[in-house]
Amino acid sequence: MTRTVEQTVEHDSLKAHLIPSKTFKTIMIEFKFKTLLDRNTITKRALLPFVLKKGSKNYPEDTRIQEKLDDLYGASLNIGGQKSGDYHVVTVNMEIANDKFIGQASSIVSEALAFLKDVAFNPNVTDGSFDQTVVNQVKNTLRKHYQSIKDDKMSYANLRLIDEMCEGETYQVHSHGYEEDLDAIDGKNLYSYFKSMIDNDIIDLFVVGDFDVNDMSQLIKNELDSFRPTQPAPFEQGCVKRSAPSEPREVIETDDIQQAKLHIGYRTHTTFNDSDFPAMLVCHVMIGAHPGSKLFVNVREKHSLAYYVASQLDILSDKLFVFSGIAPTDYEKARDIIALQVAAMKDGAFTKAELEESKSMIISQYRSAMDQAGGLIDLEYQQVLGHTERTIEDLMAQVKAVTSEDVIKSANKLEEDTIYLLTSKEAN
Amino acid sequence: MQGTTYSNVDETIYTEVLDNGLKVCLMPREGLSKTYGIFTTAFGATDMTFVPLGQSEKTTVPLGVAHFLEHKLFDKGDHDAFADFSKLGSSANAYTNSTQTAYLFSATEKVKENVELLLDFVQDPYFSDETVEKEKGIITQEAQMYADNPDQRLYMSTLEAMFQDHPVRYEVLGTLESINNITKEDLYTCYHTFYHPSNMTLAISGQMDVDEMMELIRSNQAQKQFAPSESIQRFVPEEASDVFQQEKTVTMPVSTPKCMVGIKEYSASIEPVELQKRSLLTSMLLDFLFGSSGPFYKKLYDAGLIDYSFGVETLCELDYGYSLLSGNTEDPEGFAATIKSLLLSTNEFKLDEVSFERMKKRKIGRLLRGMNSIENVAENYTWYENRGLDYFELIPAIEALTLEDANAFLNNWITEERLTVVTMQPEK
Q: Which residue does chain A place closest to B135, by CA atoms?
């Protein structure tokens, strides 16, 4: 394939990552606002994407925003927030059609950038306050969201596992915020937090698509680079690695459910910028990230205990999670079989073929991700979040070089920390 | 092999119908490292009553057979095709819906091996009493996962209320009872009838050499023997145009009530060109009226009747169509009454030229964004092709729609007898 080359350009107020590629029918533009997760500000950060979508200074209603998007040949706009390791990242994403598919003589890119700047940096504010009606509606939205978290049992079990496992850690902070904070938030203090976010967050801008790098860089300078004088100095905070308790915590809760959720958290003592991260990644994939993995083959195929069973590695944090949905009566059996799979990895009870297929799969997934604009952005941004110079090519080469011994070493770093079971009332 | 170039979207598609009846579509795209293949049979959950291949009497199979068969096709007794893809470093998956079953892979190397594996595992069934029995535990857990999901329950309850006889009213997985009654004979009966190459489509998209790929597929198929093809006789009960039940209430342990309004669009066969027009206009109008910047959305939102969870979807098939509007709401009665009256008001609604042009641009932009994904392109191409339509002609079809078309459709769209309201109340 023709590898797309990323060029980073330091502008005064942000860092631009320009990734030209002729593969896509659209151009994707994405802002990333990054700061550390903070219990005191998280609810405001959770509210802001909703408020920004409701209108900007020059497009003061969501209807005006949508009309502008339609006029920009059916462009899309997405604003959201998420937890990435110990960080909270607010993303503002826009995708516009490539000029050549819309029979348009002049470029719509500069128009799109100007619009995006208005939406992201120039909100609809009067007398130093967001519109109170909008803020109240959005608070209500979030309140309803909090109340319905428990309706999705799988996400609820994940949330509860992290609550229990990560007491006192930055990572424990809920990225969607907290209901008890809502009452104290109003248009004024929310806007005041917005200003501080714009001033103090580290901001990265990604542009992917068919464009000329010099022209784009100039456009960014003209259209976007004036919302603040300087980019704050980068701050580094690696995740503080913790050990599991000497005996794993077991937390059992009940609900009106047919299927029990058995979710287990492990400590990995490894994060993205560690030199043995590639080995941990391979280890995780062998444990539970594909249909030939230990968990899938044993828990699902051999013992027919679950439809879903998988592991998930939080690459920026020191945690690996195992998820499964089982019959409530199968709890002990499933827990034991899962434990046996992790033990097998520690003992090196796997074949060379299992190792090699997992490595190929990881590389294939990285290559596939790079075929998509969103995937390219995520991979480049992982490097930013992980504070590492290691490029995705480097990482793929290091994954290829992982040996059985490396995997066994990584498996032996795994410590079972917390077992969370959400089960039926009858079973308990 | 026939090549068709669509200059408006910069795509060339190569198609061929092989001697055994298999339809092959190749969609090469340069600059990608990934290749995606999807092998689809026009056999879904609603194909329950039919004349088996080589027989003369019709038969009815248990609910959930199509999905069960999909699971079991991977199981080869002594090995698992799912894991065979893992061994190639690629990922595979499959899904079943009302009208089709699809098997797919995504790979960045050994593409030929992947294509052959896809063809060979789907065309070489191994069903035994033992493997069929073993799968019941897994599918039961899959069903229980959906049973705990309030949105899935609401969705199925609405289909049950809308359709009196058409099998679209049943869960694709079947019931716990029907799953337990499925035998290997049921699987073979369906397999021989519906997995005949003449009932299937193979679509490959992404990185490939078109000539080599087509030759590989031809020679793979030439080595296999199939019974002569017959056109399949399927029987679907006649379905009234009005909904079965106009109102229904269900209970579940949810935190907030939910409500879904269903529109039974039609329940008699329509021509492909009519399907395309209805499908486009329905989705464009629903999006315009009830999308997050639409006039109807605004009324509902400002009245506090909907929140972030509000969503709209529509599905048009050759013999039935429905649209669904749903969300969490504290006031299900107000939600339902307001949506019904808004829907009925469309009999008098007059769209203006400016709004209609925006709707068209929005739809075209969305289609172009979707075309970035080779997975999406292969799936959609297959879906349209199997219904006598052409996915890559959608943009000109949208451009050709007139304001008069839209207004005529809109003013005849809704009748009260085709609306159903299903409320989900929290359990006491």
A: A304
